[in-house]
Each structure stands twice: as C-alpha cells, then as structure tokens.
Amino acid sequence: MRPPEQAPRRPPSGAGTPGAPWQRLSTRVIWVDLVQSIASLLPAVVALAVFGVAPGSGQLWPLLGFAAFGVLGAIADALRWAFTRYRITASHVEMKTGVFLRVERSIRRDRIRSVDIEARPRHRLFGLRVVNIGAGQQAAEGESALALDAVSTADARALQDRLLRMTDATAEPDGAAPAGEEATRTEGTAPLAVLARFRPGWVVYHMMSVWAYVLALGFGWGIFWLLGSSGVDVTGFVAGLLDWEAIGWAGTVAIAFLAVTLFGVIGLAVNYFAEYGNFELARVPGTEGTLLRTRQGLFTTREVNRDENRIRGVQLSEPLLWRWLRACDTSVITTGLSMWSMARPAAVLPRGPVTVARRVAAEVLGGESPWAVSPKAHPAAALRRRLWWATLFTAAVGLALLGTAAAGLLPYTALWAAAALWPCALGAAFVAYRALGHAVTGPYLVMRSGLVHRSTTVLRRSAVSTIVIRESLLQRRLGLRSVSAMTAAGYGAYDLPDLDADESVAFAAQAAPGVLDPFLVRPRDGAARPAAGAGPTRDGARATR
Predict the structure, then answer these.
(1) 459 and 484 in contact (C-beta within 8 Å)?
(2) Strands 128-134 and 193-197, how do they pair?
(3) pLDDT tens per residue, range 484-498
(4) How confident is the model at residue 535 (pLDDT cuts 50, 70, 90)?
C-alpha cells in the first residue's frame, strides 16, 4: 500500500480565514454535571437518612470526601465548558480552553491521523460524545492532540466525517457543515466488508489474568469499606460463615484464594462483555482508499478508524498463560496512532483464537497470508545463551538468599527456593528459544520472539527504513547476532535476537531491500557479507562483524 502524498503547506492558523466562527461545546454537559453532583451526594445522604450514621462519626468522612470530589469535579467541568471554544478552519483545527492557565492548541488538518469517537455512560445518557483528534502523537506532553468533551452525537459524526476527508481543504468553506446532513451520511455508510463481529464464546480467553486478583481485591476492599461505613459488621458476618479454627490456616488460605479467584474471573468476564459488546471490525470506504473501523462497548462506546494506506503490517501476540489455548491479541502496525495509549487504538480484535486472528490479519494485509511459510528456527547456540542466562539468574537469587540467611533474616532452608527456581528458569529458557523464528515471504518480513508474550510481527519490507545489526560479547562468542528492523510505524523498532552470525547480514539485506547494498560485497558464492570497515550508513543502518 502506498502512503498518501504529502499535502501542500497551509498558511498559518487563521490566515485568510477571518470569518471562521468559534463554537462552544454542547450545553447538555451542564445537565451531566448536575447529575454527577447529585450522584456524588447520594451515598452520604443514604448513610445519614437510612442507616442513621452520626454526622460527626469517622464513618461519614470518606463519604463526605467522595461527595466533595464529585461536586468539585462537576464544577470544574462546568467551568471548562464555559471557557472552551473550538473552530474548524480551511487549514486548521483550533481550540482555546483554561480558566487560570489559558491554553490554545492548533492542528493542521493535513496532519490529522485519527478522529475517534467515545461515549461514556453519562455522555450517552444525554446524547453526547467525546471526539479525540490525533496527529500521530505519542503520549508525551506538549504534542498536538485535541479532545472535544463533549459535543452532541450528530456534531461528533459530522466532525469525524469532515476531518477525515482528504480533499483540498482550501476549497472548503469555513465554519461547520450542517450537522444533521453530515451525520446522516456517515451513519448511512455501509461497510464494504465485515471482517469480524462480537463473539460471546471468546469470553473464556479473557477470564483469567493477574488483573483478576487486582480487580477482586480492589472491589472487595471497596465493598468492605462501604458496608463498614454504613454500620454493617462485615468481619463478624464472615467469621460466622464457617468454623475457621477447625479448618485451620491452610484451609482458610485455600478458601480465600479460591474465593478471590472466582470473584476476579467473574469480574473479568463481565468486563469483557462491557468492553467488547457490539464489537464490529469492518472495512469502510474512505476518500483515498479504505478505512478499518472498529466499534465496541456496551456502556462506554468507542469507534476508531484506521487509514489502510498507512498500515505497514500486523502483529499477533500470544500470552504465555493462554498459549495452550492457542489464543492471541491482534493489532496493526500503522502510522498515526499512539502505541502507548491505554485504549490500545492499534488493536483490531479482542483476544481470540489464533486461526481467526491469522485469517483477519491476512484480510487486513490485502488477502496475502504470510503464514504459508513456517518461520525458520534459530541455531542451537541461541538456546545455550538462554540456558546460561537462566543459570546465572538462579545463581544470583541463590547468593541473595544465602546472604539473607547468613544475616539471620531467613532460615537456611530458604535456599531450596533457588534450587526449585533453577528448573523453572531452564524451562522458561527453552520456551523462549522455541519462540524464535524468522522468514522473508514475498513483500513481508516475519519475525517471531518473546517469552511472556510470543509476538509474531509481519512487517512490509518496503516500510523498513533502517537496519541495525549488533552483537554482544557473549553473542560473539557463540556466533550470534541480533537484527532490528526500524520503521516509522507502530513501536518504531522490531527486534529479532540471536540469528546465526553468517546468516544475519543476508537476512538484514533481504529485510530492507537496498538499504545495505552499498556496504555489502557479494563473492562468487552469492552470499552477502559486510564490506571491510563497513560502518553506519546515511540512513543509520549498520553492518558490523
């Protein structure tokens, strides 16, 4: 896919556009703030009127703090509405906001990479949406990004449709287009193809992770605090459920662990339906090609559009705990999206079966399936390197335990923990070695590595701008090298560790056609080797012995 041509430079913000009107956010946000204020006051009112909590008791102070937090937040939101203005000119999107610290932001329209629509429950209640306008920024302070919170649903659709149009902006009149007309056209756009829809059965892939225990403990503590603040004796209720003395401490710990696990699993299952309900991945028409559009969410809805002209590849990540179920996460490697956002805008599928993920990824890549060729395994020296590191790690843990035991802080029997850790570390080293693999198939470069998350990266070779070949002292001893492919998309760099030294240069030359050619010599056998004294290239590529 060819990236779109660069748009001509625009005049400075506001130049030649004196009539572009400044607009307010929707006045409905005031009603949202009123409901938020009342809702934050309700727990304290219920505690006083229903449960008879004394006004001066310590149980009431947390509820009063919660009420103050909610009311002050609503007031701040109302002030933000009063002091926020935005406008769309022929060349820029501009916003002014701030009460004490005035902030003015401006994004050139030809630099806009994404216009996402989000709706939290309190926004949906009043027909509002949040429009997030991105310019390819990472999550760093000071980079251009705008969030219009909140505009009406019709205006949000109109803004998305207008800002994603890649037509000549200078020919477009200033001011906002009729919201109703734009929204109708956007809502009525039928997808060219639906690649995936919500599947309730995929909940099994989302029901178990470390977050289950975080969710269970956090939510359980919240319930304990809330009931305790209302005068309910939660400790006495739990103590009366079973004869804990007869069960013993081991049984008590086991029951508590099972209860927390069950509660966390149920919580993650509910979260899956809330986050991915009504999910749909579709290919929709754009002005210069097609867009990949995802819509998801039962309560907080979110829509993300990705220009397929900017997609450079896909990545499938298989978490270690879910690998036995053949489950993986699927994301696209594209320019213009922040890879560090908690919202994960690059993700195009919920965690699901690898077979479905590969099919969808092949359709995203235009029908080509890079998985037709099995990745080539890495040499046995890569396994030896990982076994050495596993042994050194275990030895370091053992020395730390020995020093702690010698200081009298732990018994010497704690050294058995290091003995038990060693086979686990060796097994992890073997798993990490089995994850290594690479291939070059057609226009794509395939790289696979990772222990906790085994990631298979499929990257378009024409998108690779820089190649780095490096080796550590241990790698040089074992005859290994690592190759990094860098691109102006996704995370920016994708590493492939521990290739055979004799194969690394040839693989790097195939991965980035033409980048290393001025620094390679090809003897009669046709194998690519680095030229004598080869160093950094103009593009930053490096070929070293």
Answers:
(1) no
(2) unpaired
(3) 999 988 888 999 999
(4) very low
